[in-house]
Design goal:
globular; ATP binding
Length: about 260
């Protein structure tokens, strides 16, 4: 019998006043796979991430974690399950160094005093394990490149040893080389068995690292696609509504590979 999904969303709905942000959304994420969540502006992507992260709980629907129904009403609930989120603004403190940012809120103390040596040792081990090259861990993060800052934010989320990582547009403001570094990191994390939900508008990034694509349109499912067997045009058509299916989920199993 196959293992249940790491995370399963069943008929998730969310309303903000008169605005129906999500309607009966379904989604499954397994360990060791990258799911790209795509859709036009206002499609409900960020709202869905906030539902999973416990920032903005769903009004109705069911969340399953490793086959059991769970309640995710607060960020702490998500963190306890093993869900970590890296938002687009990264939430880094520019005046703190790399070590300070990595352990912000998770500081290590010894006899009531910050153990800077131990935190630096663990920071070095973590970044080395992930093949992240930052020559001086005592540099303020304000002096780092965009790619290095993104790597620090992702690394910080891994200190809690999560099983599912939510990434909101991790390459949006990066150049080609920095983007490649972040995508390599995502590949590493998938190989380690993490489930990853990647929000992105970049079809090249999606093709490079995603296994499946989930499309949202007007807060509803509008297609699930296998990256290796679906053309880019099919995904874009689903995003724009050229192949709108009135909110019914569609799974595409065959098709032309992306160029």
């Amino acid at each position: 019998m196959p293992a249940p999904p790491l995370l399963a969303l069943r008929r998730i709905s969310k309303r903000f006043g008169a605005i129906q942000a999500l309607s009966d959304v379904e989604l499954e994420i397994h360990g060791g796979e990258v799911i790209a969540l795509v859709g036009d502006n206002g499609a409900g992507k960020s709202t869905l991430v906030k539902v999973i992260a416990g920032v903005s709980p769903a009004d109705t629907g069911v969340i399953e974690w490793q086959g059991r129904i769970v309640q995710v009403r607060r960020p702490h609930d998500a963190q306890e399950l093993g869900i970590a989120t890296v938002y687009q603004d990264l939430a880094l403190c520019d005046n703190l160094d790399v070590v300070g940012n990595l352990f912000l809120g998770r500081e290590i103390h010894r006899v009531g005093v910050l153990d800077e040596v131990e935190m630096e040792r663990r920071a070095y081990e973590l970044l080395h394990t992930l093949s992240i090259r930052i020559p001086n861990l005592r540099l303020p993060v304000a002096s780092l490149s965009g790619g290095q800052r993104q790597a620090v934010a992702i690394s910080r989320s891994l200190l809690g040893v999560p099983k599912l990582l939510l990434l909101d547009e991790p390459t949006a403001a990066l150049g080609i080389e920095q983007t490649s570094q972040v995508l390599d990191l995502i590949d590493q994390l998938r190989d380690r068995g993490l489930g990853i939900l990647l929000i992105s508008h970049n079809m090249g990034d999606i093709k490079a690292v995603a296994d499946r694509v989930a499309v949202l349109r007007h807060g509803r499912n509008n297609g699930f696609f296998d990256v290796n067997t679906t053309s880019q045009e099919q995904v874009i058509s689903s995003i724009t509504g050229a192949t709108d299916n009135a909110g019914k989920t569609r799974t595409v199993r065959t098709g032309e590979a992306w160029l």
